[in-house]
Design a protein that fits this description.
About 25% of the residues lie in helices and about 25% in strands. The protein binds zinc ion.
Length: about 400
């Protein structure tokens, strides 16, 4: 999307200083070097040219936004159908409260949890299918990266997945990742450029709910267990771009803590070249972490951003988050870092009879809306206090944007 955002340059001198202190060390390290991270903080030697050279730097910036699962239960598409007045589906009302935020980000990422197979009728849990109007709304909102590697990608079989791939590829201005028509497509770097920064995107899923492609299917996706394939994909992507963004569908459902496997894999993804790791699948929030890269830059990991929209019905599943940060790239050295990492909590609102559900930012929500939700959800204590306490129990204060 052609987005505008005022660029804040106030901390540019700090960045340049950081760059000077770190690049010289980066030049001394090989990519696969397993040196202790602490070594990377050593000051550069006086002979390094970085202490005097400035002109080759070309610093680019972009504001990044990411959300979790776009999980379209029947009540959400039924209300969209009603709003459209009998022809098609109108999903604008559902997302209206966050539309401005998505548009204002230079680049925005979403996990499209439900498949979009246009020739098949919409369906809900446990085998989802969403109408094409939903996908068009996601595009209209300004999402740029659409991940479809998740546990519902095979809900409509291989024919459904093939249709979904074709649907997303036919949408202008967005890049779908996570599924491929054949093996040769899998390793072709997938890139999208915003503000002069080339973002390389990768989508991975830990599970497909026990469903698998027929043996003769040519379709492919990246499974989290296939670490050799993932490593190859990330390394090839890194060569073709400035910033590697990994969407990964992982972790234990309804757990607010990342598993040991998530923590292990996050470090590996970054070691292989990921700069941004966006997690989803648990349907609840999990922590955010900054991880120091081998070249001294900072990578961000959001273990789970929770649900974006859904009609799940417990307090924790209705609380998601909009992750925002700035990506800074030095084009000449390929040095990448992230700054100002903040999560703004989101609340999926329920109305009686499950119709007219709508997404709110926490700053737009209040106790009377929360009380209205308690008529249908299974958490009688749901309130502003409940939501704030829940979020503060998971996300470190430094990353929390609660106004
Ligand atoms: Zn999932």
């Amino acid at each position: 999307m052609n987005k505008k955002r005022k660029r804040r340059l106030s901390y540019l001198p700090i960045y340049i200083l950081t760059f000077v202190l770190t690049t010289s060390v980066a030049f001394l390290s090989t990519y696969n070097d397993s040196k202790d991270v602490a070594n990377l903080t050593s000051p550069p030697s006086e002979t390094e040219e970085a202490t005097t050279a400035q002109p080759r730097q070309e610093i680019l910036r972009a504001s990044f936004l990411a959300v979790g699962d776009n999980l379209i239960h029947s009540k959400l598409y039924e209300q969209a159908k009603e709003r459209a007045g009998g022809s098609g589906y109108d999903f604008k009302y559902l997302y209206q409260n966050v539309a401005e935020d998505i548009k204002n980000a230079d680049i925005a990422s979403i996990n499209q949890e439900t498949i979009i197979a246009p020739s098949k009728p919409p369906s809900t849990y446990p085998l989802f299918n969403s109408p094409p109007e939903l996908g068009k709304e996601v595009v209209r909102l300004g999402f740029d990266i659409i991940n479809i590697a998740n546990n519902h990608m095979l809900d409509k079989g291989s024919s459904g997945l093939k249709e979904a791939i074709e649907f997303w590829r036919s949408q202008d201005g967005v890049k779908m990742t996570g599924a491929y028509l054949n093996e040769s497509e899998m390793y072709v770097p997938e890139t999208i450029t915003r503000n002069g920064i080339v973002f390389g995107i990768v989508g991975i899923t830990d599970t497909t709910n026990g469903l698998s492609l027929p043996a003769n299917s040519e379709l492919r996706y990246f499974s989290a267990a296939e670490t050799d394939k993932i490593r190859r994909k990330i390394e090839l992507t890194k060569e073709a771009c400035d910033v590697v963004v990994v969407n990964i569908h992982w972790g234990n459902e309804y757990s607010t803590k990342p598993s040991e496997n998530q923590k292990f894999l996050a470090k590996k993804l970054i070691e292989w070249g990921a700069d941004i790791v966006i997690g989803h699948h648990p349907h609840v929030l999990q922590p955010i972490e900054l991880i120091r890269k081998i070249d001294g830059g900072t990578a961000v990991v959001a273990y789970s951003l929770g649900n974006f929209v859904s009609m799940q019905n417990t307090g924790p599943t209705l609380i998601g988050g909009m992750l925002r940060f700035n990506v800074i790239v030095d084009k000449s050295s390929k040095y990448v870092t992230v700054e100002d990492v903040k999560l703004e909590p989101l609340v999926m609102h329920h109305k009686k009879s499950y119709l007219n559900g709508r997404l709110y930012k926490l700053s737009q929500y209040n106790d009377s809306l929360a009380r209205e939700s308690t008529a249908t959800i299974k958490t009688p204590a749901f309130s502003m206090d409940y939501i704030k306490k829940h979020v503060k129990g998971i996300i470190s204060e430094e990353f929390l944007d609660i106004s």
